[in-house]
């Protein structure tokens, strides 16, 4: 055996031998660098639409259908993460946001009393115009015939009732918000409409780890290239380097993904303590994630817009109309019964409902103020940060990885193709080992 080893050693073509790990190292770096680009860019699909491709893609194997653009009838590319934005939104809710808090908890975190005070402050100057608009539209003759002191008295009474009315509105929202708000649909719709936000979550959340994965691509590639060089020097077949390059490329990407996410909790492997790069920084990453969620995803402005314009918008408006309706009765004060008789129950109820409907948008409008929404974001951020830090490490890892888990094969296949190309390139430059 020693004699065989000696003969092998003396017969090594050292330039050929030593350049193999260097090649595999560079290819490993390129694999992880370009794989990172494939994950995030471009944000929107770029390519060409091909007539009939959509129909053809629908009968291809499911894995092939997952290639961005095929099911839309295009040949090109869209980053895996932005292409799966809606999917990530769904998983973000299932794996994390739903565990961070219920809609009522998020709403309570926003301090409804503070919200009510803000609404009253903004809305009070608008009450005279609100009353005048509704009355001029519903009962123009009656409103014109009323003496100005009587008009002023109606406006003053509505203003005096405003804090109580608004308090009832915010209480009603808090009581029914679990039925009115679907966080999953809200987040999915937002992620689908803004795929760049999903990319930002990954980038801000783990750019340091992603850069480290690229650097380790060279390390993994170089180390894997050593046994490749040994096998190639022993057998000296032209097809070995391309075939082993496929293996190196696949394994390099797989190791890079493993390095980032696994293991979720510290473990010892062969006496060495290992811990995934993402879960290792869970407390710090939780703060970054919470800031993005509070600033761009679950904001007061977006909550209000979803409540009024989303799938349950009609129900929300009816709830608010019901809560606001009695304000007209109270505004009429002791004269309510006489006014009701003089105008007739139908006309009086019509005015009351019209005021309530008109007041719904005006009551909620102050909450869509970006400046006020930004003030409230700190409370959401604190809640999300605290709950994210409390997530079990496995759930924390799944929150980020499961959005791309089914598409990881594309990255591995990309690595295999580049490894194959690297093997042929080495053959082209240095020939077959002899």
Widest beta sheet: strand line-up? 1-2
Estimate what percentage of residues fall within beta strands: under 5%
Number of strands: 4
Average of per-residue pLDDT values: 77
Main sheet summary: 2 strands, antiparallel
SSE order, as H and E? HHEHHEHHHHHHHHHHEEHHHHHHHHHH
The number of helices is: 24
- Class per helix and strand makeup: mainly alpha
Low-confidence stretches: none
Q: Indicate the radius of gyration in whole angstroms.
A: 32 Å
Helix content bin: over 70%
Q: Count structural domains.
A: 2
Distance between the termini: 21 Å
- Outline: elongated
Which helices and strands occur, and which strands form pairs?
Blueprint: H1 2-10, H2 14-40, E1 46-49, H3 53-57, H4 62-65, E2 74-77, H5 80-83, H6 85-100, H7 103-109, H8 112-123, H9 127-138, H10 140-145, H11 148-180, H12 183-193, H13 195-235, H14 240-261, E3 267-269, E4 272-274, H15 277-280, H16 282-297, H17 300-309, H18 313-324, H19 326-332, H20 336-343, H21 345-364, H22 370-390, H23 393-405, H24 408-430
Antiparallel strand pairs: 1-2, 3-4
């Amino acid at each position: 055996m020693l004699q065989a080893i000696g003969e092998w050693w003396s017969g090594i073509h050292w330039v050929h031998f030593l350049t193999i790990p260097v090649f595999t190292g560079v290819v490993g770096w390129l694999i992880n660098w370009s794989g990172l680009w494939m994950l995030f860019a471009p944000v929107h699909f770029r390519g060409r639409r091909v007539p009939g491709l959509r129909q053809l893609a629908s009968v291809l194997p499911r894995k092939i259908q997952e290639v961005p653009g095929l099911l839309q009838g295009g040949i090109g590319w869209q980053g895996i993460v932005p292409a799966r934005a809606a999917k990530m939104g769904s998983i973000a809710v299932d794996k994390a946001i739903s565990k961070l808090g219920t809609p009522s908890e998020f709403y309570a975190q926003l301090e409804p009393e503070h919200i009510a005070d803000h609404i009253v402050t903004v809305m009070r100057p608008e009450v005279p115009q609100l009353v005048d608009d509704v009355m001029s539209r519903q009962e123009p003759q009656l409103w014109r015939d009323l003496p100005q002191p009587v008009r002023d008295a109606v406006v003053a009474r509505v203003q005096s009732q405003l804090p109580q009315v608004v308090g009832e509105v915010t209480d009603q929202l808090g009581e029914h918000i679990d039925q009115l708000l679907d966080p999953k649909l809200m987040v999915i719709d937002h992620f689908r409409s803004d795929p760049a936000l999903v990319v930002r979550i990954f980038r801000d959340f783990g750019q340091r780890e992603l850069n480290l994965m690229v650097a380790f691509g060279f390390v993994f590639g170089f180390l894997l290239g050593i046994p490749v060089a040994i096998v190639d020097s022993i057998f000296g077949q032209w097809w070995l380097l391309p075939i082993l390059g496929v293996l190196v490329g696949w394994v390099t990407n797989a190791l890079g993904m493993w390095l980032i996410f696994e293991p979720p909790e510290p473990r010892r492997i062969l006496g060495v303590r290992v811990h995934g790069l993402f879960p290792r920084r869970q407390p710090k990453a939780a703060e970054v994630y919470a800031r993005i969620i509070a600033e761009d995803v679950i904001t007061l402005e977006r909550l209000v817009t979803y409540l009024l314009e989303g799938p349950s918008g009609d129900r929300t408006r009816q709830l608010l109309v019901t809560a606001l309706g009695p304000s007209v009765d109270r505004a009429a004060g002791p004269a309510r019964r006489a006014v009701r008789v003089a105008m007739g129950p139908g006309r009086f109820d019509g005015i009351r409902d019209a005021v309530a409907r008109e007041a719904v948008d005006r009551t909620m409008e102050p909450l869509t103020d970006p400046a006020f929404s930004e003030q409230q974001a700190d409370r959401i951020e604190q809640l999300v940060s605290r709950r994210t830090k409390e997530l079990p490490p496995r759930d924390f890892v799944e929150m980020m990885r499961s959005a791309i888990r089914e598409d990881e094969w594309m990255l591995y296949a990309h690595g295999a193709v580049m490894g194959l190309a690297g093997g042929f390139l080495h053959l082209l430059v240095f020939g077959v080992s002899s």
